[in-house]
Amino acid sequence: MFELEWTDEAMEIYAQLKASPSQIIRYKAVKKTLQYLSANPRHPGLQTHIILSLEGPNGENVFEAYAQQRTPVAYRVFWYYGAMRRVIVILTITAHPK
Predict the structure, then answer these.
(1) What CATH code is carried by the domain that includes residue 81?
(2) Which domain holds residue 68?
(3) Coil/strand/helix, residue 63
């Protein structure tokens, strides 16, 4: 299992999704994605891949994991491996750019 750490931005977005009744479907999808990330960041359902145009604060590779698919404005979770072993840092949660 991986420990999840959060940036302030990611935590705020997650809290907003959780608090909004109109976002319940997105919240559940993101929550499931985070559970998969914690268990296995290479889970096939996440379709995890590196994002070459982004870097973590210390030059870390940033990855994208799918929270939703085949839906308008599908949500994604952007993350990188933390400095400590078995740590994943959730960078942000956002709609997939068009």
Answers:
(1) 3.30.2310.20
(2) 3-95
(3) strand
pTM > 0.85: yes
pLDDT band (50, 70, 90) for residue 98: low
Structural tokens at position 35: 């559970």
- Tell me the Cα Rg of the chain: 13
CB 6 within 8 A of CB 85: no
Residue 60 CB neighbour total at 10 angstroms: 16
Q: What is the pLDDT of residues 5-44, one digit of tens each?
A: 999 999 999 999 999 999 999 999 999 999 999 999 999 9
If phi > 0 it is left, if psi is from -120 to 50 it is alpha, else beta; for residue 76 that is beta
